[in-house]
Amino acid sequence: MPLSFLSALAASPAWLQQPSVSAAVAISVVFGLLYVASIYIVSAVFAAPDASVHDRNHPHVVRQRIRGALIATTLSLVLSALLLRQWGHLDVAASLGLDPSRIAASVLVAAVLTATIYLGPLVLDHLDGGVEWADVRRVPVTLWSQPLAMRNYVVGPVTEELVFRSSVVALWVASGISSTRCIFLSPLIFGLAHIHHAASQCRDGRPLKAVMLATAFQLVYTTLFGWFAVALFIRTKSIGGPICAHAFCNYQGLPDFSRAERYPQYKYLIWLVFGVGLAGFIVLFEPMTREGVFV
Q1: CA dist., res. 120 & res. 278, Å (int)
Q2: Which end of the chain has fewer CB atoms within 10 angstroms, the N or the C?
Q3: Is the pLDDT reported for residue 133 higher than 70?
Q4: Could you tell me the CA-to-CA distances from 16 to 33, 87, 153, 166, 260 in Å, in that order?
């Protein structure tokens, strides 16, 4: 452990030197603020003359935000690792969900569970023509050539899960917060970290009421996803599964139930599949994430 960090801890408040709920919660809030601040600071420092830092989909801004997210993620992981060591956790990699031996099983479980809850949209995708194998082979090229795809399907899921799951939840668990509270409360930080999108919507001229409704809705679904991601992280003891689920959900988006109206001949069957997917997810989650079964 770096001597400079040891010296800093020695001079820090007592609640930071030993595992405590207040320290874990305070630091996790700092991680959320750091993540949001980094993407704006880096975008502002390396600004393009034809783009505002609030223009989140401009290619130049996307690239700078990616750099900011990577910086914030690195700082969060390093600080979490050092604090975990200070708090007596010798296997820091395992605490952060970075144990290589657990990644494959976690990803497999996450893929099955996420595909199950998205069974309805996946059936609709098939009816719409499905995904061509040629499109799948072009994915690596598409990711590198399109900053939006890289942000949405790689950098976003990886950095957000490493910060809001690996870094945050590891500290919460180490401080003695129960798994139930970790699952239902820690995602609030993840959800609140997305509120900054409201500023971009206001700048685009959207009515304040519409922005508030959209922000509230985003807070709800990011928190709901956070419940799933934290439960997956705690039960599989790996960050691989949450990253996989995050990327899958970003690709699929929110389920569009109105798509079923395109196929009146299959309307009731499609609704049945939606129900089966939800029921299957509920039934499968506990046994698939149970210690000793798949993970």
Answers
A1: 9
A2: N
A3: no
A4: 19, 9, 35, 19, 53
| Band of pLDDT at residue 242, cut at 50, 70 and 90 | very high
Between 89 and 15, the higher pLDDT residue: 89
The pLDDT score that the predictor gives to residue 10 is 47
Q: At what angle do helices 119-127 and 100-117 cross, to 10 degrees?
A: 70
CA angle (234, 274, 186) in 5-degree steps: 25
Torsion of CA 207, 213, 216, 222, to 10 degrees: -100
Ordered alpha helix ranges (H), the chain:
3-11, 14-17, 21-45, 59-86, 92-95, 100-117, 119-127, 133-137, 139-145, 147-150, 156-161, 168-174, 179-185, 187-192, 197-203, 208-236, 240-252, 267-288
Does residue 220 contact residue 240 with C-beta atoms inside 8 Å? no
Say if residues 110 and 244 touch (Cβ distance below 8 Å). Answer: yes
The total number of residues written for the chain in this structure: 295
Q: How many C-alpha atoms does 121 have within 13 Å on its Cβ side?
A: 15
